[in-house]
Amino acid sequence: MEKQAVAKAYVLSDGEIIEESALERYAIKQGESRALPSDRFGSAYGELGLVEPLYNLEALAQLLELNPYHYRAVKTKARDTAGLGWYLEAKTNNPSEQQREIAMQFLENPNPYKTLTDINNNVMVDYDSIGNGYYEVIRDEDGTLIGLEHIPAHTVRVHQDMNRYCQIRGAKKVWFKRFGFENDVDYMTGEIAPAGSIPAERRATEIIHIHNYTSRSDYYGLPDILPALSAIISDRERAEYNISFFENHAVPAYVVTVTGAELDEQTKQLIRRYFQQDIKKNRHSTLVVTAQKPQGDFSDTPIEIKFQALSVETKEASFRMLRADNRDEILSAHGVPPYRAGIVVEGSLGGSTARESTEIYKQSVIEPRQDMLENVMNRLLFVGLGITDWRFRFKDIDTKDTQAKIEELRFLFEVGAYSPNMILRELGRDPIDDPNLDRHFIFGQPLDASQEETNAILNSLKQLHAKLIDIATKEGGRHV
Q: Which pairs count as long-range contacts for 242-247, CB under 8 Å and 24+ apart, including other chains?
């Protein structure tokens, strides 16, 4: 049977015509290299005795740049863990104020260029994007703790003895030793020597390594995002397809199939003029297309030309659903509620559901991370500064629904259960020294008061009204 000639082309919304063969060449062009970035350590693993991580840490670091949901979830967890503030909590009934002064002096100035919040936040970004985080602990010659720094996790590798760490940036190489390791380490060569035997200017500083535990490695951790890696790749491919297609080819409106003939240049010109000019002038205009058989084709096969409209909306809707699925998978891997990452999900339940989600997120995701960092900071205070009476603590996420609390207090006031000063105490404010504000009211009328007393009380309440509204507004603005 003689094979029929079949030509296929796509008519775009701007009237341009793209032949199928051109799209095939374009599809091949899109097969760009997906090679992961090279590991800067290369042959150093064998030469220096370092342990190679399970995954390319450079590639994990770059994932933050590829997906907005992953980026926002990592940043949100870092902020909620270490960015809401910190304080010192007394461990004894009579804590030493001198110890507190020493601790505060260090914690408020751990680094000439970064605050403690900056350092902790950077470590947590590494922890949640790479699975590992590193603090550099700096001491003076007599061992007193004088500084703290963050080291980018993708530049550090662990030695097989787990007492040394090596950082490589470009052509530079620096060695560190584990926090609390008693021997000296030469920061240039990594050589171990008895304590005090290496000159101070050549001694390696210490590292505190935190990692997100995995049973597959004793040396490194893994980030929470790994199970959702396919969702990041899928979302990236979707975005690249859309960007490349719209930038290069506009939107396909029709597919034209010609059977038994060729789609010659004259036919293309007719179609192009129709979509670019004729149909814009008159939507009911008619297109007459002619075609001829290929040279040397003397068969009786009839020539057939078909125009088939393409439904772009279906593909776009599928892409939107795909993106939503990818987003949910990424946020689920991180354990971050969508609205906490700044995402409003249409049709989702709010109110108590949002509060419950925040509370679960706080207890299962944030508090374990805060405990981990608090342990690090307290080890520094105890060992490095000799602080025994005080404990470092992070401030918690506020999950209270303050607006609901205000409505409850309003009701209790109107039925006479609460006085104005009791409301101020509930809001964490100091009561006002006015006996009238300790009285109880029922729907605005003071209990057991004469008309003269009522007028005086009402005047006092009017003066307080603006202040209470201001307090309620400020408190209400903090609800989650």
A: 242/319, 244/30
**For all residues of the chain together, what is the average pLDDT?**
79
Q: Comparing 162-171, 436-445, 456-465, which segment has the lowest mean pLDDT?
A: 456-465
- 111: closest CA among 135, 141, 89? 135
Q: Does residue 220 contact residue 159 with C-beta atoms inside 8 Å?
A: no
Strand 206-211 with 172-178, pairing = parallel
Residues 163 and 180 sit within 8 Å (Cβ to Cβ): no
Q: How many CB atoms lie within 10 A of CB 226?
A: 16
Cα–Cα distances in Å, from 440 out to 121, 415, 419, 434?
48, 9, 5, 13
Nearest to 133 by CA among 145, 113, 148: 148
Locus of tokens 């309620």:
472
> Two tokens at 426?
């509930």
Residue 256's beta-bridge partner residues?
9, 307
- Asked whether residue 374 carries a pLDDT value surpassing 90, the answer given is yes
Contacts of 147 (CB under 8 A, 6+ apart): 110, 111, 137, 138
Token pair for residue 328? Answer: 């949910």
User: Can you tell me whether residue 210 is helix, strand or coil?
Assistant: strand
What is the rounded average pLDDT of the residues 331-338?
92
Cα 367 to the center of its chain, rounded Å: 17
Work out whether the CA dihedral 321, 326, 331, 332 comes out positive or negative: positive
Q: Which run of H or of E encompasses 177?
A: strand 172-178
- pTM of the complete model beyond 0.70: no
The answer to whether the CB of 130 falls within 8 A of the CB of 61 is yes
Tokens of 145: 């703790």
Task: In whole angstroms, give the CA distance from residue 169 to residue 41.
Answer: 9
Residue with tokens 């309440």: 461
In DSSP terms, 211 is beta-bridged to: 132
Instruction: List the helix and strand counts (H, then E) for the chain.
Output: 15, 16
CA 374 to chain centre: 22
Most confident segment among 92-106, 121-135, 378-392, 445-459: 121-135
Q: What is the rounded distance in angstroms from the CA atom of residue 233 to the CA atom of residue 63?
A: 9
